[in-house]
């Protein structure tokens, strides 16, 4: 009999969540477009479960031009209206408009720092923070670093970037390793 892998409890039994946990969550990401995708998706998740967003992710990619910030920054009000009618995404006007605003801000950061990755990773000193949590109950909803990131992003005009959203982003893109110590992925990332 084969022993099954121990995973973080949030992965549950949904195959898509397990796949996301096993292949993506907590793995360091330095690609600007991928980082922008996570920023948009984490903002869309506000008030919802990650499972809901994950199941809409492929549709989001198509609806939002593969998260191309240049294209998104040019969205017109008629494009916003189309997105509001799209059942494959979260149809919230403020969240949709925030993606457009954030695309503009993203491009400004690229001009200033050379890359969005360079900018984001400075909040953790350029390398992942390895936490040591025995239980998911120990994992904070936000940290000083996510608070600093949130404050700076807001100052630059970003929307839907509170400290909790920023911490979820940091976890997703591997800026912090919040796999619990008993999870098989803990040592891998």
Kindly report the oligomeric state of this protein: single chain
Q: Note the total helix count.
A: 9
**Beta-strand content bin:** under 5%
E-strand count? 2
Question: Could you please describe the fold and organization of this structure?
Answer:
- The chain is mostly helical and 189 residues long.
- It has one domain: Hypothetical protein, domain 2 (Endonuclease III, domain 1, Orthogonal Bundle), CATH 1.10.340.30.
- Helices cover 52% and strands 2% of the residues.
- The chain is built from 9 helices and 2 strands; from the N terminus they run αααααααβααβ.
- The chain has helices at 15-23, 32-45, 50-63, 69-73, 77-84, 93-113, 116-121, 144-155, 163-172; strands at 129-130, 176-177.
- Strands 1-2 form a two-stranded parallel ribbon.
- α2 crosses α3 (50-63), α2 (32-45) runs antiparallel to α6 and α2 packs across α9.
- The longest helix is centred in the middle third of the chain and has 21 residues, at 93-113.
- The two termini are 27 Å apart.
- The model has no long low-confidence stretch (mean pLDDT 96).
